[in-house]
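pls design
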């Protein structure tokens, strides 16, 4: 068994937790929830005023999914994602304005200074708050699409009075139980392609359950010893009732199309509930449970009672986008990325696969541990943290506390009275976007050994031109300063 030597110093995340209270409060300016921002800098209280209704979220997602954009990277928010960008901006302002925004930027700066990722952990006290589209948080770019930040949730309301799952240790090769089902026989080629691609990733040992039925899946799971349970296919959602609606996995009922009438074919699926799957998994819990299937976001949340990390899809999803998620996620995981960083890599892969679509934001990741980190073959603890009167030391790097008089190091976010020029910040954001664009395009071009399409090469050249233009503007801005 090979252990991947992932450098803990570069792969461990810095966490900032948003811990919401469960009680709704009333004030003269509206209804709000209290929350606390918690990180190595200490704690900071805040108020969250929900900026829109769940109906607005559903309409925005439906509107965004009708478009197919031409851009490779949508951190700039092109027309195809305007509805979700607007919701993301409102959500960001409602959560991270004023002192809370400064606090967040300081933690982000700490991650940048140490070349670490930032894990934004949203601790959810109720399903209504969990229904908001946190994955689309937007402040000049979508946070979830950046290489610096990952967004995960903790379903606190589901974990009450339950012990947290045990801290897992992942080693290569990862043992994956990959189950796929297609009761209507409409997704078969895509599901088989996803399975084939995963089987070619070095560092994965994939055990496949094809055309999964309840009996065949149960028989395979009795073997135990899997690091990951992965299901691809369809989820179904109860059409009526209060949110969150009950979700099921759609398994096959057995038999072949030639043995069934049309009416039987339409009813050939067999639903699997989260309670039943959870009882099977609890006998030999995997570290991860991944659902590459539509209508599985809440299914994944409820399964967190026995699995440390789960991920599902909100609403509908294209099979090509689901395949892109699997490739990006497992590729990053075996390369030594922490599991939340692998989700971020998967979002970028989905973004490149379906330009203009909101699918990357439909993936909802649930983090069910109280602390620590899941990294393949690396330490599962956070860097050591010590404090002095004016500074906090994370992994050996000293950073000033909020409100302290200690000298601030280069790269830290400044308080409001010392904030950098807004135009300079905008240019730095644009630079990061264009660099990501160029990297994505060059990667895509390299995948065409016999010559790439001219249109793709033209996009690459345009991305280079835009990046050089922004760099020139930044140089002029720094000269003036």
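designed seq:
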């Amino acid at each position: 068994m090979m252990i991947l030597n992932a450098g803990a110093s570069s792969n461990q995340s810095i966490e900032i937790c948003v811990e919401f209270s469960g009680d709704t409060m009333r004030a003269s300016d509206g209804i709000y929830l209290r929350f606390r921002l918690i990180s190595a800098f200490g704690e900071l209280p805040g108020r969250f005023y929900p900026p829109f209704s769940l109906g607005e979220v559903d309409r925005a997602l439906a509107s965004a999914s009708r478009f197919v954009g031409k851009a490779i990277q949508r951190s700039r928010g092109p027309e195809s994602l305007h509805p979700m960008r607007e919701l993301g901006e409102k959500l960001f302002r409602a959560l991270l304005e004023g002192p809370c925004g400064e606090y967040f930027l300081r933690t982000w700066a700490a991650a940048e200074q140490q070349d670490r990722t930032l894990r934004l952990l949203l601790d959810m006290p109720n399903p209504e708050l969990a229904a908001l589209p946190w994955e689309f948080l937007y402040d000049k770019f979508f946070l979830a699409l950046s290489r610096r930040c990952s967004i995960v949730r903790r379903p606190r309301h589901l974990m009450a009075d339950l012990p947290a799952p045990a801290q897992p240790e992942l080693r290569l090769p990862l043992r994956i139980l990959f189950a796929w089902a297609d009761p209507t026989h409409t997704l078969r080629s895509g599901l088989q392609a996803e399975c084939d691609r995963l089987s070619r990733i070095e560092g994965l040992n994939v055990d496949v359950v094809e055309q999964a039925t309840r009996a065949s899946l149960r028989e395979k799971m009795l073997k135990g010893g899997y690091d990951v349970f992965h299901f691809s296919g369809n989820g179904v959602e109860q059409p009526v009732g209060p949110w969150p609606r009950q979700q099921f996995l759609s398994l096959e009922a057995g038999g072949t199309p030639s043995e069934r009438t049309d009416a039987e074919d339409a009813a050939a699926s067999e639903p699997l509930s989260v309670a039943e799957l959870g009882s099977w998994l609890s006998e030999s819990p995997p570290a991860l449970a991944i659902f590459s299937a539509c209508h599985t976001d809440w299914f994944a949340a409820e399964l967190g009672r026995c699995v440390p990390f789960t991920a599902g899809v909100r609403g509908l999803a294209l099979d090509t986008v689901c395949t892109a998620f699997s490739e990006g996620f497992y590729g990053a995981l075996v390369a030594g990325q922490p599991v939340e960083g692998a989700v971020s890599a998967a979002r970028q892969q989905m973004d490149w696969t379906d330009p203009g679509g909101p699918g990357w934001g439909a993936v909802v990741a649930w983090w069910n541990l109280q602390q620590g980190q899941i990294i393949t073959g690396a330490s599962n603890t956070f860097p050591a943290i010590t404090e002095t009167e004016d500074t906090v030391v994370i992994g050996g790097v000293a950073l000033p506390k909020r409100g302290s008089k200690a000298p601030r190091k280069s790269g830290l976010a400044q308080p409001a009275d010392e904030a950098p020029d807004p135009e300079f910040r905008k240019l730095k954001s644009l630079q990061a976007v264009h660099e990501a664009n160029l990297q994505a395009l060059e990667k895509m071009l390299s995948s065409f050994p016999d010559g790439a399409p001219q249109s793709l090469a033209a996009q690459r050249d345009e991305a280079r031109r835009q990046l050089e233009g922004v760099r020139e503007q930044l140089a002029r801005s720094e000269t003036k300063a």
